[in-house]
Amino acid sequence: RRKYNKEQAIEGDFRCPIVCVLGHVDTGKTKCLDNLRRTNVQDGEAGGITQHIGATNMPLDCIEKRTSFVKKVAFGDKLDIQIPGLLIIDTPGHESFSNLRSRGSSLCDVAILVVDIMHGLENQTRESIKLLKKKRCPFVVALNKIDRIYEWKSSPHQDVRKTIDNQKEGTKNQFKKLYDNVYTQMAVEELNIKLFWELTTEEAGEWIPIVPTSAITGDGMGNLIAQVIDSAQNIVGKKITYNPGVKCTVMEVKAIEGLGKSIDAILVNGCLQNGDQMVLAGQQGPFATHIRQIYTPPANKDLRVKNAWVKHDRVKGATGVKVVGRGDDIEKSLAGMPMYIARKDDEVEYFKGELEEEIGDALDAIRTSSEGVYVQASTLGSLEALLEFLRTEKVKYSNINIGPVNKRDIMKASTMLEHDEKYGVVLAFDVPVTRDAQELAESFKPPIKIFTANIIYHLTDMFEKHLKDQKKRRQEELKEIAIFPAKMSIMPDCIFAKRDPIVVGVKIDDGQLRVGAPICVPNKENMCIGAVSSIESSGKPVDSAKKGEEVCIKIENTTGDAAKMIGRHFEKTDGLVTRISRDGIDALKEWFRDDMTKQDWKLCIELKKTFKIL
Ligand code: GDP
């Protein structure tokens, strides 16, 4: 294969491979990206988490500079750069994987899996590995934070293998120990890894190269870039060959000052030209519109840098592009969906059909439960990311949608109110709520809660708080119905008043007694004697008393019948119990589960027999 030639690039040459960075939180994904891009986006992002998609082009001359000292790559003796550059996706983590797809497959050509050498494999690392395997995406492991090894001497402009060789014996030994640990953990995941310099060309595709790196000092970063290129060229060669068939995914839709409504897209392959007719997936179905102007960011800068857009008549994949349409239609497009280019008239209808199917497939693939919250997000990718998070948080969802929250969404969400009030909730991620929808939501009793946020975990925090608030409210409302089971005996010599209000010392034999509980005498055909109006423990008022406690209680006659008297209507030796009920048990089950012990439930069963509750 010939070397890439900018001036004479031809069909069949490599395009830029698309690179994603994955790994557990805090392993250094963002720092790695920063180092690769030599920018700093960590600050200024919502919650420090990069949530919007952009991409960075790393051009050939930059690659050449940064890999000039690389002595060896895994699948060849030296780096022979045949690609025009790298397209690095700005969003670290899983989201970029689900966001970046076309016809169901991931658009990422080679991934960098970042592992913190000090921590080894962590949960999200394992999840990332699963994802990479599923998508059959080759990857390179960046064994990051090597600078944290004791007495590490940094030398970022040198092949990292040599840098390691030059360390003191103790440092080398610790590196080896930490590496061996990761090696074993990877073996458990059924992955064969090797330090990249130990790999041979024959092992391409089967063995995974590891590059020791420090995103902070820069050690190994040149090697990492070289290894990514090596893997791209040797493992996915065919996939990264340029061809004119347009493969493009919409990443984000937004209005830019001075430019108007635009979409950010990743053009994976093929070329886009001003005037091309685009077919896009919209909130109300597929639609067609024309490209007015194509822009790209300046080399090696974030797509989001302001006012730095370069105008183009024509761009070739792979690249991140900003597209402005002829009208404002473009704002209807759904992010996470492909953009098709219709160069013949009959292609418009064909691509619309494709998109319709794709939208359907994407939504069908997301299984929902029969009860749960209503989830809405701006893009398919962010929707998937949100749902994944909800699953790990064990929050059920019953319905999903993409785009702004409309009246129709509220109507759907309201059906949950009959099921289970706590699910009368819309979790809206990074989408606006129409005024009509808000008004409709408030008209329900209880109102449908709409939580909006642009940070995923804020939504689950809000939902959790909603559950807590609702529990508190319901507990308060049901206080009089939810009677806790309790069994008690009157203590001898502790009868302070025999008749209304009865004041006696009791020992709680089982269960828990709470203020408000109606009290009965099982020995006297479950005769009711009133309700507990106060409990005192060691002279202080308390709300409840548990098994084993000795307390003084006041029982007021609330029965509506004549007051009952100790020694006349019942004896001081008669045991007392709380009067439980069917509704009460249901309320306990639903809202007071956390307050009930196993023993309490046992007593409940016993008292159900006493009161002949089915
Ligand atoms: P992310 O959550 O994976 O994106 O991780 P970050 O890039 O935000 O890094 C997490 C923390 O680790 C930050 O405090 C970084 O400064 C630090 N960090 C990242 N890479 C390195 C590294 O190579 N060496 C050292 N010593 N610290 C690092």
From TrEMBL:
Q: Which cofactor does it need?
A: a monovalent cation
Major location category of this protein: cytoplasm
Quaternary structure note? Interacts through its C-terminal domain (CTD) with the CTD of eIF1A (EIF1AX) or with the CTD of EIF5 (mutually exclusive) through a common binding site. Interacts with eIF1A (EIF1AX) from the location of the start codon by the 43S complex until the formation of the 80S complex. Interacts with ANXA5 in a calcium and phospholipid-dependent manner.
Q: Which residues form the signal peptide?
A: none
Domain Tr-type G as annotated: residue spans: 14-236
- One cellular-component annotation, GO: mitochondrion
* Record's protein name: Eukaryotic translation initiation factor 5B
Keywords, alphabetical: Cytoplasm, GTP-binding, Hydrolase, Initiation factor, Metal-binding, Nucleotide-binding, Protein biosynthesis
GO molecular function annotations of the record: GTP binding; GTPase activity; metal ion binding; translation initiation factor activity
- Where does this polypeptide localize? Cytoplasm
Give the catalytic activity: GTP + H2O = GDP + phosphate + H(+)
Task: Give from-to of the shown chain within the full protein.
Answer: 372 to 985 of 985
Which family is it part of? Belongs to the TRAFAC class translation factor GTPase superfamily. Classic translation factor GTPase family. IF-2 subfamily.
